[in-house]
Amino acid sequence: MNILPGNMRFGAGKPVKRLEDQRLLTGKGQFIDDNPEEGALWLYVLRSPHAHAKIVSIDTKAARAMPGVEAIYTGADLVADDIGTLPTLLIFPRPDGSPMTVPPRRLLAHGLVRYVGETVAAVVATSRLAAQSAAEAIVVEYQELPSVVDPLAAVKPGAPVVWSEVPDNIVARMSYGDAAAVEAAFAKAEHVVSLDVVSQRLVPCAMEPRSTIAEVDKKTGRLILHVQSQTPGSTRDILAEAVLKRPKESVQVLVGDIGGGFGHKTNLYPEDGMVAYAATKLNKKVRWRGERSDDFLGGTHGRDLTSTAEFALDAKGRVQAFRVRSIGGTGAYIAGPGALIPLVLGPFVQSGVYDLPLVHYDVKAVLTHTAPVAAYRGAGRPEAVFVVERLMDAAARQLKMDPRAIRKANYIKPSQLPYTNAVGQVYDSGAFAQMLDRAVKLADWDGFNARKRAAKKKGLLYGRGLTSYIEWTGGTVHNEAVSLHATAEGRIVLHAGTQAMGQGLQTSFSQMIADALGVSIDKIDVIQGNTDLATGFGSVGSRSLFVGGTAAVVSAADLIAKAREKASQMLEASVDDIEYRDGTLTVVGTDKHVSLFDIARKEQGARLSVNSEGQTDGPSWPNGTHICEVEIDPETGVTRVVRYTTVDDVGVAINPMLVTGQVHGGVAQGIGQALYEGVSYSNEGQLITASYQDYCIPRADDVPPIEVTLDGSAPCRTNPLGAKGCGESGAIGGPPCIANGVMDALADLGITSIQTPISPMKIWEAIREARARAVA
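^ that's the sequence the OP posted. Answer follows.
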């Protein structure tokens, strides 16, 4: 971990308004579609209509003869050109201990298609319409094969096989804990509570659908790729080295504004690779813009975890053992962290904020004939926390305990920190009971019964949900490199490998550097999304601020140190006698001084520059308590969230306004997961929820006012800022909080479980069945 100067400022706690908003809200953002066409060719991809089929033949003759068509590519063309496949981390064992193996994911399918929407052919033409018309004229002969879309069905004997080398469809398996000890604890437990829990498959819904432009620089011959990517550096490396098999230095990736990422825009997609391939083959600029349906069919999905979870408890509600058996659907291919999410990232936080002495987790990653599953806001942690929090509420109800009391009986105590959880992850700081106590007061817990009586008079059911969550943030790389420059024109320029996609990184980085250097914030330029200027791990796992922000502050300290050395030479004084303050370097006790920007003027290139690296000691562990109240119309099953209160521990909040906005957005997505959103495939593998006509996301009036309180009493100990990630917190605490609230409202009817999304139809049917049981 970097050690910062003791007197260094870094703008903590200041609610600076977003610098990006003036530009973005007045239509001055620079998204990919804002790039001028300038005679660029358009690429359109033909997608498979079948979930599983052999490609017998592809006839492109008629399509090639159509007006404007420049080229048509098939999987065979790419194989002949030795174009590589999208890489996968083959680091997990199969159930029998043999090495993990997965189907190679090509830019265009070759031989077989494995899900509806897989890219089969690509047309390049002078206009988007011409490319689409030609693609529709391509005749593909398929031989349909059996398919399986449900991960639970996929592991049954005789199920259709996705990849011949994995006949049981279990691509990998991980186990944690002591199975025998857990079994013994269950055998003698006072109480056993069991619950089946599903985190359904979701479609990430960023405002801006995916799009890509590629061109070859005529002077240098380098390939320039304009793409939406949260990880520009790895996008460049994968495209260059794995797909096109050329030096990574021969490719430049440029990322402008991104209309939302949510993990969905982390991977290099087949369409991105095809645009780059076509540009190099034709030596012309080529662009592709996806429709919303391209994201539904061809983009990665999120979640898709089915679990059976059990607590063994003593008479006082103390958990003696925790057992979870999970199946995670990966889709037909392993996209990026697709296997890592259920097998590792979920188990990292499976025990939540609780001191659970014995655990046994058994997790299988299973192939199906569906679109690949990859990162989506929280990536594994929402699913894991959903399991433990839903089970904690079920246990409270079965033992007739207050949901607060059962949590307090099991919380990790402050004296136990740093705490090593059941899978070896170290929680460095936290005050879990304090989060609960603060949330209870702010949510007016004691006034709930009166509000419930008032709802009953209106014929409504009323419930309260409670969740204590924890989140692992940082990704697997705990360092980030940046460069910082003071220019002769009086500007401070930061080059960073992190990537803005709506989080407000320009604002937070600018305020930190402005405060550290003592210069006006309007003199700061934050440049991201250019692999020629900076490469890093990028923006995933809520790491941008506590890792990337650390790098930014370190660079400010390094720039001051370098400026003091330069000033000592210019002013003929010892470095120790040079004082830096607000952009000016002065010899202590004299009026001899020089400005930072005057020093830059005398440097090569008229700028004073440093290359710096921010290092943290490990991940951060944001956590908190969410409390909601919901009302349900029993005649229609419609649920409305009417109150929502959070107390969130993000350590030191650099910009509380930005953090609050991140929590708001996460909770809104959590409400969507709990009540509205869910991917549905037919038995034949057709995506039924292929548009917003069938895939429901929450509207503004579905989201209540959200009262967010930040608690900084337990700063992070793994980075010098004391900050913890915050971008995924709301999406982790939200779904179980809402689900627990709905089940609380239905508890008096004897309804114990409904799987998400808890739609009006599901609630209405559950109420009807409960009333029928009561009459019988």
